[in-house]
Amino acid sequence: MSKILIIDDERSIRNTLKDILSYENYQVSLAENGMEAIKMVGANEFDVILCDIKMPEMDGLEVLEKLQEIAFDVPVIMISGHGNIDTAVEAIKKGAFDFIEKPLDLNRILITIKNALDKAVLLTETKVLKRKVNKKYDMIGESKAIMELNDMIEKVAPTDARVLITGPNGTGKELVAHRIHEKSNRVKQPFVEVNCAAIPSELIESELFGHEKGSFTSAHKQRKGKFELSDGGTLFLDEIGDMSLSAQAKVLRALQESKITRVGGDKEIKVNVRVIAATNKNLSEEIVLGKFREDLYHRLSVILIKVPALNERLEDIPLLAQHFIDIICSEMGLPPKSIAEDAIAELLKLDYTGNIREFRNIIERLIILGDKEITQQDIKLYAGANRD
């Protein structure tokens, strides 16, 4: 049952609104002035607040400002018998959800309350989703290697410096890129990812820079590339060591001039993009072999971050095991499982050539095949599956 607070100095209006809304199965509380309402909101949770504007001592706009401080995510609907456009505009600017004039129209009130409740639900769902996303990109561990990695992210993230992330497959290079974006000033702007290894060399330029209609056989309409789509935000070039030399030349130009040109076009388009790149290759060796441009390497590697292999931070395995158990059980709709100490000891003996990605797969396998508690015997039976 949704909880509604009505703030109005006229008893007849308070009681009438309470009768109507109670009949509609809302739980209604009443306050006859602003000070009483602020105390009630500080001590209770409400889903929607209806507030009169013309009240003695503290008017509705003052009350609204106070409510924004203590319950900014609760929709406030302003009501007034002395309303005009200026008052309504001011109320909306100060954060009101809507403005309704007296005499009150029953249908308008009920529809506005329903819309306010729908908005509140969406805000709550958005917060939950954001928490889930943020948890997905948590850096789990207390080892020296992870602490140093986190320190580097904290220093680098607030800047616009380009970052090159290196490390073996499965270590979490994408996770590091996401963390840098989440802690940057660009967090409210797009994070766009391109897997350079997964896109054929003949298509990578179109993917990055877009194309004009008719620029090649299948170009039936104009298309924006990833540089344009990430304007104002972060562009993550994963596995950049697999990018063709021709595409590398265009990326270099984009970094130098902050401009791109679509395939088949001649118009220069300004872009404001922070580029983060990642690779599992030794780019110094690739430069010697003539497979990677040295000038692009130096453009990308303003900051170099090496992500440690799991074998270099085995002390994090107990925390990682519990982290993945919690996540996977939640995803599968299973009750939480525990893991025995001797099972952890057994996990510490394994060689994780596939790093975090392999470790997560092992935990998922143990959850599916094991019992309520993952045991040492489970590790011996299932953790080594498919490793030969």
UniProtKB/TrEMBL annotation:
Gene Ontology molecular function: ATP binding
Location of 4-aspartylphosphate modifications: D52
Start and end residues of each Sigma-54 factor interaction domain: 139-368
A Pfam family per the record: AAA_lid_14
GO BP annotations, alphabetical order: phosphorelay signal transduction system; regulation of DNA-templated transcription
Domain Response regulatory span(s) in chain numbering: 3-117
Keyword list, A-Z: ATP-binding, Nucleotide-binding, Phosphoprotein, Transcription, Transcription regulation, Two-component regulatory system
Record-given protein name: Sigma-54-dependent Fis family transcriptional regulator
